[in-house]
Amino acid sequence: MLEEESVCHSEPTLYTIEGNIHFCPNENTLRNVIDGRTVTLLSTASECFKILIENQGRVISRDEMKELVWGKRGVIVSSNTFYQNMLNLRRGLEKVGAGKRLISTHYGKGVTIDNGLDITPIVTSVSNCLEPMNGTKNIPFSTSEAINTADEHFLNNFKQLEEKGIIKKNRYKHGMILITNLLLLFFCILMFYTAHNLKRENYFSHYTKTKLKVKNCDIYTDPALLNEHELNELLKQNPPDCEEGETLYLSSVYPIQRMSVIRCIGTFLPGEECESDYYLE
């Protein structure tokens, strides 16, 4: 008997809701004091309800509620566990006649109990929270009962919010992928442009300077060209024209047995002029 009487020792022992509903958090029970209807909540649903009461008027987000109820125990739960506990609480309140307006859902933010509702904490040394009134019975309550239309609407709305969050995350990921691809494309273009310029700057880097000269113009040949003796004979037969300070670059033309002559003022760098004059037999 002493054990039964000490069950509800806590501070506060119970909460009076709108004058006719008693909530005993230590026993996880809701009771209508007028007709005696009583339901037993899940312990975690009861804890959720107590947190909402203690923070009346403030919106509690799903993540905050999960942390306050389960996280402090080192337990990680899914969003569906949170939904089921809120459904359990709503069903319990509805069964004892509290109606559907007690807990408000702020979509995208969380849940709250409005400030306008009359909720009074009561502290007593002994409370008979579980003692049913004459002619009434304690109604066991579990989430295995069929979810009514209001519950389905509540669950669907929360799931829609979760899906929207997932969609936003996917959009963010897709945006990052697009930006990454654009950056890669930009760097590829930049590398191509740089390589092209380097190639232009070093266009004749593999050419070899010969000892021969035409009108005091230096002559460079590519590796595939004739040897120096054959080149000397060729230049005697077909002397190319050049002016003082110019450089001649002789290139073989594959697969035709010809060679081209390119005259440049300087070393073929950007801003310097080059001209291809003709091909020699």
In short:
The protein has 281 residues and is of the alpha+beta class. It is built from six helices and 13 strands.
Task: Describe this structure as you would to a colleague.
With 281 residues, the chain is an alpha+beta fold. It has three domains: 2-145, Orthogonal Bundle (Arc Repressor Mutant, subunit A), CATH 1.10.10.10; 149-201; 208-280, no CATH class. The chain has six helices and 13 strands. The chain has helices at residues 2-5, 43-54, 62-69, 79-95, 149-201, 228-237; strands at 14-17, 21-24, 29-32, 38-40, 103-106, 110-113, 119-122, 138-139, 208-214, 217-221, 246-253, 258-265, 274-280. It has a six-stranded mixed β-sheet with strand order 7-1-2-3-4-8, with helices on one face. Helix 2 (43-54) crosses helix 4 (79-95) and helix 4 packs antiparallel against helix 5. Mean pLDDT is 74; it is low at 1-10 and 132-150.
Q: Would you spell out the secondary-structure blueprint of this structure?
A:
Blueprint: H1 2-5, E1 14-17, E2 21-24, E3 29-32, E4 38-40, H2 43-54, H3 62-69, H4 79-95, E5 103-106, E6 110-113, E7 119-122, E8 138-139, H5 149-201, E9 208-214, E10 217-221, H6 228-237, E11 246-253, E12 258-265, E13 274-280
Parallel strand pairs: 4-8, 10-11
Antiparallel strand pairs: 1-2, 1-7, 2-3, 3-4, 5-6, 9-10, 11-12, 12-13
Helix pairs in contact: 2-4, 4-5
